[in-house]
Amino acid sequence: MFIDKAKVFVKSGKGGDGAVSFRREKYVPLGGPDGGDGGKGGSIILKVDTGITTLMDFKYKRKFVAEVGENGGESKCYGKDGKDLVIMVPMGTIVREAESNKIICDLSEKDDEFVLLRGGKGGKGNCKFCTPTRQAPHFAEPGMPGEELNIVLELKLLADVGLLGFPNVGKSTFLSMTTKAKPKIANYHFTTLKPNLGVVAAEGVEPFVMADIPGIIEGASEGVGLGLEFLRHIERTRLLIHVVDISGLEGRDPFEDFVKINEELKKYAVKLVDRPQIVVANKADLLYDEEVFEDFKKKVNELGYNTVFKMSAATRDNVDAVIKEAARMLKDIPITGLEISDEERYIPEEKRFTYEIRVEKGEEFDTYFVEGSFVDRLLSAVNVHDADSLRYFHKVLTNKGIFSELRELGIKDGDMVNLNDFEFEYLL
């Protein structure tokens, strides 16, 4: 099964907590603090694996969580770092942030690697909070939380040449004749339901990769048929071979088909229209009137497409000529990466610990509630039943500017300050 899109949840590891410990040895009854730091949490890393060709592995496993850092220990022992979680993806994978659909990274090279989420930093042990006036701190720093993200993995095939055209015009037959690919071939529409890749390695021709892109019909850019699912695979191709059925046996006009497909390319992405095209009038062996091809060629030339071939994939007539022309043109077309505009690129928000203050008026006193991630982290780091720890707690609130903000809001003696489950009376 060909899977080219998958939504997954990823989370990096939390950092280990710092330890609260004191040196206790024979003849050293009052040793100093010796709590070690916590280990760093594991990161989430995406890495290209050239042996994978679809996103099938993500069909059933959709949650990836890295290892947490180990907590610090006594005797200044540092916690072990959590292992990084390396997720292998196919070459040509684009990673998007699920909610905004903006691009985080493009993994299109053989050895590409990207650190998607970094593990949380380990917390400091109590020995790091020792000062001349605070010689026995009974508190330590908790580890930083890991980051989490919902992402969409989107595979865009890496091919030098893309075959496009309406269904049943002979693209799969052409691919099978020029490569070792074995696409499904039959005389009905939408025989090909997944992209097929093949390597063209003809005599005297530099090998190149060719992809048969299915499902592109009128309205494909709006999601009609299978077009929207597979139009993305054309974006990475350097050259397009546009195949039409010149025989007209199905009652279709080859020139109208040619124009309609190019309109769909333009609607999907304007830059695709400017991509070099070789126009191939296939099924020429079934052509009843040579004037039909000449008329088609003239109209296509007037639109600015000068490379037009009459071909029969079934009989291999002119197949080699098309391949040689494609190889020649590829030599002059540079390999370029996927262009990502500033509007399309995802920029992660800087992670900050914040707070907000709200006031509840009372008859005898007012209560000021300080809430937010900053409060959660601070309270997890201090021991409110220890005098030294409370002094550190007071210092942090002062340095953060919370007391200044409370005074600006009109707090007075006797009012209560509430931080989660911890409440105290405010005194000037």
UniProtKB/TrEMBL annotation:
Limits of the OCT domain: 345-428
Cofactor entry: Mg(2+)
Domain Obg span(s) in chain numbering: 1-158
Alphabetical list of Gene3D superfamilies matching this protein: GTP-binding protein OBG, C-terminal domain, GTP1/OBG domain, P-loop containing nucleotide triphosphate hydrolases
Residues the entry annotates as binding Mg(2+): S172, T192
One GO molecular-function entry: magnesium ion binding
Protein name: GTPase Obg
Highest classification ranks of the organism: Bacteria, Bacillati, Bacillota, Clostridia, Eubacteriales
